[in-house]
Amino acid sequence: MSLAERIRNLKEELGGTAVLVAVSKTKPASLVQEAYNAGQRVFGENKVQEMVEKWEVLPKDIQWHLIGHLQSNKVKYIASFVSLIHSVDSMKLLREINSQGEKAGRIIPCLLQFHIAQEDSKFGLSFQEAEDILQSREFVEMQYVSVNGLMGMASFTDDEEQVRNEFRNLHNYFAILKSNYFKYNPSFKILSMGMSSDYKLALEEGSTMIRVGSSLFGER
Ligand SMILES: *Cc1c(COP(=O)(O)O)cnc(C)c1O
Predict the structure, then answer these.
(1) Tell me: the pLDDT tens digits for 37-58?
(2) How far apart are the CA of 194 and the centre of ligand 1, in A?
(3) Nearest residue to 73 (alpha-carbon basis) of 97, 90, 56
(4) Which of 31, 145, 148, 188 is the most core-located residue (most Cβ within 10 A)?
């Protein structure tokens, strides 16, 4: 099956219920272009430099999503063009995104990344840490970031029940934060969860955005 067919099939499976972020990290720009030619416009990268390099050479109507851990000192390289930062996991990072958004003259859309997996290797906020941010006066006064939802990665395990529970937890957090802090903010609507191995479970648990790499582009 060709890349174009794999994209078409996955989009058909989604049927408009969730956005497909095609994760192109480590893959050459030529492959991104091939996916673009098949109609894909949203791409995910986990490294700033790689994303900048691809942004420079590829069509400007691509929406670039930063999905990997982001260091504060690198925000400046992507502030002018990034469509969505999935990986906000500290007040310090949010502060820098706000400041770079102001310099770039735009509001930068973000997701709060939650730690939902059992492994402690993965980045992300706890529910309490997220509430601390959302309740702070500093956050409320930020004008150049827009928190549009949550992102999380489930444990890397064959245990489907565990993965399902982790996604369910994230969905619950989403619902609580929505009603406590974003009730009248229609932009807070993104629940980014699900990768090649677990997107079907994520969709069943309410995902609105999946990040799929290897099952589209091949193993890395
Ligand atoms: C690499 C990556 C993905 C995609 O993983 P696949 O297993 O290749 O689909 C999704 N989300 C994040 C945060 C990633 O780093």
Answers:
(1) 999 999 999 999 999 999 999 9
(2) 8
(3) 97
(4) 145
